[in-house]
Amino acid sequence: MLLHIPQTFSLILKSYGNETLLYHPASGDTLLLSPSAVPVITRLQEGPLEKERLIEHVAEVLNYEVDESFLAHMEEVLSGLVKRDIVAAE
Amino acid sequence: MMTRISELDLIQLQSQLKGVGLYLKTGPFSYRIRSSVPAIAEGLHLLYGDSAFYPQMDFVDFDIRLDAPSRLRRYFRPKLDFYFDHQTPFKPLPLTQAYAFLEWGMNWCISVHMNQYLKLHAAVLEKNGRALVMPAAPGSGKSTLCAALMLRGWRLLSDEHALISLDDNKLIPVCRPISLKNRSIKVISQFDSSAVFGPLCEDTHKGNVVHMKPDEQSVALDHQPVTPGWLVFPKYIPGADTRLTERIKETAFLKAGDQSFNYSLLGAEGFEVMSRLIEACDCYNFSYSNLDEAVETFDKLSETAA
After folding, report:
1. Are B140 and B103 in contact (CB under 8 A)?
2. DSSP class per residue in B141-170
3. Which of A44, A66, B214, B270 has its CA 20 to 30 A from that of B179?
4. Using only C-alpha atoms, what is the Rg of chain A?
């Protein structure tokens, strides 16, 4: 599954050092991102990526092991982002 | 030489209100107010006494009138309508609530219009050149704290609206009376006997309401914007110790957004302006029950102004 950020709008990220806020121009929503959603967005802003590679990238950034619980957590994070139209899946 | 509203006698002011109207400028906004209700004239004379009197204006932002909806309603269970540009956006209220109705209507004018600013429901005061912005939901003790700080020398920018310039992020003053409700009225009158109150409006949907006069210096500086300094979320808790605790900026952002009238409407620009406000401010939660201690805490905080 290829994941990407729709090109019709540009997401705005803001961090003051603790957590990260996301402004989603399409919906007008402002969201406080979970720590594992931040590397998803920043990586996909560089270009589309296969889901498995993306999960490996997030694990590397956060220094986590890719085990079952991490995979389940990332499924939840990614489906949340897709549901909010922040990330698109093909 | 500027004529102040207090220099008119009450009969002159009543006649102005019944005739062409009273032209009033508060911060960047101008109103024309018309009414034949004596309590409106008395309240304006007392509470806006330090504001400039304008015999005429070429342009006003808000043209408002408060009067009985019909001749019958002047005498039988007397009620008032609030007219804004000849429309009546609210249901009529009892004549006994006339002055509060005027102030609420004036607030509404700013809240639903004037989107050239990012607007928060917040009290704003200034000391040592920095603005203290206190966004809060009704019932949090915001206005009581705001009144106490003004009475102890802080400059009042607003009890109700933080207007943030989209250009330079400064806080724009709109210095008008402070609304006090129920127990706060007694608390503030005991806190400082020099507090000046307008007409008491009883049994409103908010309980008993009075408005307190802003101090002369705050009114005189009503045209001078202020650089943001502190964003504080106040909470009155009976019996609580005075406590000022740092708050992380990301959640302060979201909470301030919740108290905004037009954050969503402004879209990405609203996000950018709010971001700059948060960046410029130290953010805190504040809980209190003792006003003297609260004022002392904020006085100390003001010493941190760069």
Report:
1. no
2. SHHHHHHHHHHTTPEEEESSEEEEETTT-P
3. B270
4. 12
Q: Which residue of B has its CA nearest to A29?
A: B264
- Look up residue B66 and give its DSSP letter: E
Q: How long a stretch of residues is chain B?
A: 306
For chain B, give the longest Cα–Cα distance: 60
Tens-digit pLDDT profile for residues B169-204? 999 999 999 999 999 999 999 999 999 999 999 989
Whether B248 sits inside 8 A of A19 (CB atoms) is yes
**pTM of the entire structure?**
0.92
Helix (H, G, I), strand (E, B), or coil: what is residue B229? strand
Question: What is the torsion angle, in degrees rounded to the nearest 10, for the CA atoms of residue B27, residue B112, residue B18 and residue B41?
Answer: -60
Q: Which residues contact B162 (CB under 8 A, 6 or more apart)?
A: B119, B120, B121, B122, B123, B124, B133, B135, B171
Q: How far is B276 from chain A (nearest CA, A)?
A: 10
Over pLDDT 70: what percentage of chain B?
97
Residue B238 dihedral angles phi and psi, to the nearest 5°? -55, 130
The answer to whether B251 faces chain A, any CB pair under 8 Å, is yes
From chain A, pick out residues whose CB is under 8 angstroms from the CB of B251. 19, 32
